[in-house]
Amino acid sequence: MDRGRGGVVILEGLPGGGKTTCFHRFIAAYANSDVLFLPEANPPPWIDGLTPSLSGWLGSRYFQLIWEGRLAAMRWLRAAGHALLLDRSFFSNLAYLHAAKSSLYTVALDRFAKLYSLENAPNLLIVIDLPAELALERRQRLEKLPVPWCLPDFIDRLRRFYRKILPTLLPCQIYFVPGELPPDALWQAVLSLAGPVLPTPKQRSIPPVPPHGMTLLDNAARTWRLGKSSAPTIWQLGRPAKFFQRQAIWHSQTRGVERIPWHRPSLLK
To answer: Kind and range of the H or E element at 83?
Structure first.
């Protein structure tokens, strides 16, 4: 395919596999390119106090609507010639519902089949895979995991979805990369797969983000307790953007600093 237009790469996999670390390394490597980066679809940082209510049926419905909006945005962005790199996708929504034995899984699967088409299929789907026990061990080093993410049976079912079920849903090939690899080897393995799909970084200088824009993003990150960013501040659709472990924010001239509204196509134009 033409490396200058419309390639879509999706990173999926079990928690603790290094997926988000690779995602942030892509941001650094392709900051000087025409790639748009879609992070995980977490709730906005300013409603953290409400996240316990986003569990069960309500939470599943919330994430399904977010991903349906993202699919619509992806369709528009691809038609406009943008390349996309995603840290998780609608497949994560299906994987969670399957692993949680949710009654909404069948409904979401049917909804996915109606929304999804070959025009939405990724050019490349990479699943970072590792044994469930190792996934749990790695994540629990970093934080106390909530239910069901701390349950071995849940992680086993999550892995089964990626290895056994997801390949039957998609027309494209899925590449499984072992998450047990050392970090640099994992990055090189993922990069070797994604490089031919993404547009080549351009040999041109990008105007730096103005200090005022950097200050606004940094102040918002402190207010929302987003932690430190391991990726550089870059331009996304003409707006300065900064990526964190679970969030991505940008500064819009009309709306100020906000979570990047990748699920709202009308706000991206």
So the answer is: strand 83-87
Q: Decide the pairing of beta strands 35-38 and 8-13.
A: unpaired
Q: In what order do the strands lie in the sheet with 248-252?
A: 234-236, 239-243, 248-252, 256-259
What is residue 165's DSSP assignment?
Answer: I
CA separation for the pair 171, 120 (Å, rounded) = 11
- pLDDT attached to residue 2: 43
pLDDT of residue 165: 94
Q: Are 195 and 29 in contact (CB under 8 A)?
A: no
CB neighbours of residue 123 within 10 Å: 17
**Would you say 39 and 247 are in contact if contact means Cβ atoms under 8 Å apart?**
yes
Q: Within 10 Å of residue 100's Cβ, how many Cβ atoms?
A: 18
3-class SS of residue 16: coil
Which residues neighbour 203 within 8 Å (Cβ) at sequence distance 6 or greater? none
Tokens 């071995």 belong to residue: 152
- φ, ψ of residue 113 to 5 degrees: the values are -65, -35
Pairing verdict, β 234-236 and 239-243: antiparallel
pLDDT over 50 (residue 80): yes
**Could you report the per-residue pLDDT of 177-235, keeping only the tens digit for each?**
999 999 999 999 999 999 999 998 876 667 778 888 899 999 999 999 999 999 999 99
